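seq as requested:
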Amino acid sequence: MSDAPEPLAVEQARRMRSYLIQMGIRVVCIALAAAVPSWPLRWVCIAAAVVLPYTAVLIANAGRDRRTTGPVMLDPRALPAAPHDDAAPGGTADGSTPPPTTEDR
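struct tokens:
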């Protein structure tokens, strides 16, 4: 399998199919809410009919935004510490004395 994204037309068809399936389930929930005589089951059907459009739109709009990231190849805790500038005045960062210049002679 390739890491290339699927073509836009294929992705849109998949998202539309998902949306239409969820809306079909919503229509069934509305019909059941009208036909079921028991109130607890009726409320479950009504709640599903109310929530399904929101979730369907969220799932349908989550198209190309989904990106999978690979594993992190570098652990930041494994990095060496930054050098500290604790050297004495006139010294270098590693604590050694710099070579004399013509002005030091």
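The CA atoms of residues 99 and 105 lie 11 Å apart.
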